[in-house]
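Students often ask what a holo structure prediction actually looks like on paper. The answer is less mysterious than it sounds. You provide the chain, you provide the ligand, and the output is a string of discrete structure tokens encoding the 3D arrangement of the protein together with histidyl-adenosine monophosphate.
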Amino acid sequence: MSANASFLIHHPRLILYFNKPSTSILHLRQNLSLRHLPQSLNPSIYSSFSVALFRSCRFSRPSFSLNPRKLSSSSSSSSSYSTTASAEPPSLSSNDNGGGGRSGALSSPPVIEVPQKIDVNPPKGTRDFPPEDMRLRSWLFQNFREVSRLFGFEEVDFPVLESEALFVRKAGEEIRDQLYNFKDRGNRRVALRPELTPSLARLVIQKGKSVSLPLKWFAIGQCWRYERMTRGRRREHYQWNMDIIGVPEVTAEAELISSIVTFFKRLGITASDVGFKVSSRKVLQEVLRCYSIPENMFGKVCIIIDKIEKIPIEEIKGELVSVGISEAAIEELLQVLSVKSLDKLEEILGDAGDAVKDLKQLFSLAEKFGYSDWIQFDASVVRGLAYYTGIVFEGFDREGKLRAICGGGRYDQLLSTFGGDDIPACGFGFGDAVIVELIKEKGLLPELSHEVENIVCPLDKELQGAAATVATILRQKGQSVDLVLENKPLKWVFKRAARINAGRLILVGNSEWQKGMVGVKILSTGEQYEIKLDELE
Ligand code: HAM
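The corresponding structure tokens follow.
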């Protein structure tokens, strides 16, 4: 390449023009393409060149490699509900294609004029849902919906894209560092929601006095967190949430836990498979109050304590000291956190405060609801979100193999921190990933197959229209129909009928059609008959 050579690199988000390669990089018009590159240059040179430049320019990494070898789509996509880290799609190039990072302002996508192979894997940490996985997801969501219905909840939804401000809280939560956030084309800071609760709070505030309390709302939505991928944790997951707004009583928490127990039971999961660890943030609050630690430290302390099982205890102590908690208060906090029985807690805190009172009421209600054997007191549960103010709970698998299955609690001040009225609220989030791992472990995965009631097949090409009429009549009667759209031999039709688990084969043949009739074969029994079209049910 001569010293004055100039060339172009196309990228889905960027077009680079290299005048003297080391000096000028310009965004270009979009009607130019790789065919403007000097023929003598091997594509792999462009690839490494572009990667180096992307690195040095701190641009978003290219989402494809120009190296044809690396463009090969040979790697197979992992199952949507395979949540092990090893199931991650391999990255495309030496750079981690799916890693993302924060993107800057957007330019229009370029028009690519050269045919190219795309990476067939979804971005790292995300999933496709081919039919077999979608069936499982739909089954799971149906169970979420049915349980919510049994408890009298109404379904709501919010946008996946929200204003970033909704998720930026002060307490240093992990969820904030995991935010997928960026500026949109109008220069607004936005984020893909990492959870549903702030959106719910926003909607409740927006509705204001037009809704009457209590609200019992549920939602099933996709959430995004830039997580380190482990079993049951992905960068995109669905959460089932149930929230009760406007009830200050512990009856609300008891009702919510009851709904999760109902869900587990529907799936065949028992109290020996799963339990709930329950505590109250008021336990910590009471300890902090004894040491005259200001209320506004509370959220921060909870977030630090929540990491107790993830980082060494000395680090926890160090963090607590750095936010101004005294050594004596830390010792007392750690002692209280190790308590696993309500009686012992009462010994330490006395029975005057709300913490013990609330927890006792919850355990008493659990008896009435009939799920005492599912719940246990564990003071170490504080949960990683700053907004909880009272009872908190987490569903866990008793074998200890999986991450938290679900979690929730009371958040009486979230609405007022967003500028709304002080309205008591509590709820939970239940992810779609860990539960699938659990039912796989327990052998409780349902057998879900594609099923169609009828397969309708014309026996020759001219009868395609007649077959369409038959299919339409059946569909109008509420029957599902797979219509054979091409002229296929019967052997092929039988094979397809077996694959889609069709109940009946409806054959549209010339002589029958002349008489206004069709042939029917019941595929489970082999029974065959002819029937008038208007008698076909
Ligand atoms: P959370 O504990 O952060 O709470 O998440 C709730 C549940 O969502 C977890 O227990 C887990 O099942 C699932 N989950 C969370 N992150 C991931 C991930 N990266 N991959 C797969 N599953 C995940 C909340 O989000 C609260 N907003 C829940 C709530 C609702 N509290 C009151 N109302």
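The chain has two domains: 131-442, 452-532.
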